[in-house]
Structure formats: structure tokens, C-alpha cells
Amino acid sequence: MSPRSSIAPVVASGTASVVKLLVATLAFIGAYAGVETSQVASAQAPAGVAAQTRAQPVTLSSESMQATTVEAPAAGTIAVSALGVSRPCHRPYLIRSVVDNPRPDSAVSYGWRLQRWSTTTRTWRTYLTSHSGFAGRSQTAEWQPSVVDNPGWYRAELSVAGGARLRSARFLVSC
Description:
Structural class: alpha+beta
Radius of gyration: 29 Å
Helix content: 25-40%
Mean pLDDT: 76
Oligomer: single chain
């Protein structure tokens, strides 16, 4: 019997054993990390919250989210729609307008501004801003700002680079 033929089965069985040990080790580490993570999360949450979370089943469905259908606004106007109340005095909004690009071969940039009426200075003051852009002929621009714990009169403003500035009608945010 040649030494080569007697070593081959040993090497093959040794390699199989190493692979099995590697798979078992990775499975153990994964299980240990999962248990450790859940224990850390449970320790950080209050005991009542952790117990309630474990007792409640979760059902995911496309019907569980409220469908919001908002028509595209007419060109040259801004449409403001309330999205609903997620928490007390937290008001998210969907603000939309159609932005036309006179040069569709190049990009156009635009900026949103949510302004709040100041009764002290009797002027519109910037509350939130957002900037974006696109390339192409026309696009419906959307923005979803939220007003938190700050009731008052607001309006949205859209400014397009090299173009006009549009303002929405004012709307009241109340708690």
C-alpha cells in the first residue's frame, strides 16, 4: 500500500470534520448573538413594555396602512394635505407641486420652505427647509414636513432655480 493512498481518506475525513465544526461554530455564534441582542433590548426596555411586546402578535398587511390618494396639483399651485396625527401635537403634511424644466436636457434644482407666521414681528419666518432637483421635462415635487409642538399659521413656499417662487395658501396647525 502506498503512503499516498493511506493518507487520502484521513485528509478527506479530516476536512469533512473541520467543515462540520465550522458550520456548528457559526450556528452557535449566531444563536448566542441573537440571544445576547434580545437580552440587551429587554434590559434596556422597561419590564412592562417588554412583557407587552412579547404578548402581542404582529400582523403585516398592505391593508394595515392608511392609503392616501392625493391628486396632482395644477401647474403653478401648491397643494397641502394633512397626513394624519401620529402623536399629540405632531402634524405631518404632504406638500406637492408640479415643477416644469424649460431645459429638459439639464438638471433643475428647487427648494421647499415651510414658513410660520410670527405675531411678534408680523412677518413670515422660515420654520423648515428642503432642497432637491431632477433632470427631465416635468415632475411632481413632493415634501413631507412635520410640525411638532408648534401651533400657528403656516404656508409652504417653492422656489425653482431660475424660475418663479410659489406660495401656498396659509393653513392653521393646532394641538
